Amino acid sequence: MATLVLADDHALVRVGLRRVLESGGHAVIGEVGDGLQVAQTVERLKPELLLLDLGLPGLHGLDVLRDVRRRVPATRVLVVSAYNREEYVVSALRSGAAGYVLKGSDADELLDAVRTIARGGYYVVRQLAGSLAHCGQTPIPGPDAYEQLTSRERQVFMLMAEGHSAYEVAAHLYISPRTAEVHKLKIMRKLGLRSHTDVVLLALRRGLLSLDDAGGAPRLEP
């Protein structure tokens, strides 16, 4: 069970989301309809998750997302949007979102996304899997850079893409956390990546991760 705040300017949408979420055992502890009020509401209530519409009045959802991630980094953000274009998904991920679902998604998929993100995971709606996996708008290196990674670095890279911390990587590979951290820094430098979002997107483009099964293990830790 997760605590959630809903940010959408349509009251009927919030009612529908609340019913679905509460039927899944989650607790909606706040609702907001104005983009200017979202960050302060999240900061006051400190929910585990924020369900965020991008088309909010007052302040655009992406700006809201960045503000929330800066002010309340412990709250993870699931974008629930009518926008089904890949540039919105990538922009949301780069701004700190842990997931993206469409307003046309069914209740089960929404609950899958919430469960996954609440336990530290990463989720993107299945309809956008193909376009995001082949997205050419992100500054991700070609295959040659990845091929230069050592076998150990590739193991670490996959664990990074799945959202594991340095301590978890160390436990998986029976190495020290310090060694795991050194590997992570070398990988980011070799591949020219700037964030864990870039790691996930590269793994998707290379077919190392599938968005269709992103509802399983944790995926992304901003």
Please give the structural blueprint.
Blueprint: E1 3-7, H1 11-23, E2 27-32, H2 35-45, E3 49-52, H3 61-71, E4 76-81, H4 86-94, E5 99-102, H5 107-118, E6 123-124, H6 129-133, H7 143-147, H8 151-161, H9 166-173, H10 177-191, H11 196-205
Parallel strand pairs: 1-2, 1-3, 3-4, 4-5, 5-6
Helix pairs in contact: 2-3, 8-9, 8-10, 8-11, 9-10
Q: Outline the biggest β-sheet.
A: 6 strands, parallel
Query: What's the N-to-C terminus distance?
Result: 22 Å
By oligomeric state, this entry counts as: single chain
Low-confidence stretches: 134-143, 211-222
As for the CATH topology of the largest domain, it is Rossmann fold
What are the secondary-structure elements, in order, as H or E? EHEHEHEHEHEHHHHHH
Structural class: alpha/beta
Q: Can you tag this structure with a few keywords?
A:
222 residues, alpha/beta, Rossmann fold, Arc Repressor Mutant, subunit A, 2 domains, six-stranded parallel β-sheet, 11 helices, disordered C terminus
